[in-house]
Amino acid sequence: MKEPRKIYVDGQFIGEVPTTDDNQKDMEAAIALMREKGVYRETSREQAIFRQALAFATTSAYLHRTDLATVPRNGVSVVPFVVNAAFALELYLKTLALLHGNDVRGHDLLELFDALPTAAHQALLSNFANSKWPCGITDMVVFRAEIERLRHSFVEWRYLHEKSRTGEVRFGELIFVMEVLHETCRADTRLRAQSAIPEMDGCSDLPAASSV
Q: What is the largest distance, in Å, between two alpha-carbon atoms of the chain?
């Protein structure tokens, strides 16, 4: 007989459920226990997408801090850093859109950004001053231009092995955009304020792929 599964919520042990060979039943048992203990919380679409965005942003921050902000830089981590960061941007933009009542689709970052209402753009602008990565971005025109630079980065860098060259990515500006999007989403009470993106040390530009 298998050992029962211990269930923790926010780091606190709340009880055990039987462990079976059916993962769906195990999950349902865990949810039932959490409901019984009064600690189960429904997850909205906004929360689910935001948490995914945070997961990819956290991964990119780890790669930057450990491999790309050091000398010598570990070039092997450049591609996964860009791919994780670019996908985080996409998910943050979709989170922000949902928070403003707009369900958007697609991977083009510029199209996602342009689909946001004026109120969302104003919210983003209000978080510029809170960033540790200003890198010369002081207004929405320049912010939009940086998103345009990054608009296809997720696809381009994910399939870098099939290309001889891809668009330029600037580390500082990319991190600034990600941080502003994160903080703007995080400020919304519907997301139950999550952890901040881990700090990224150093601010450097990444040349086009053919030069890496």
A: 62
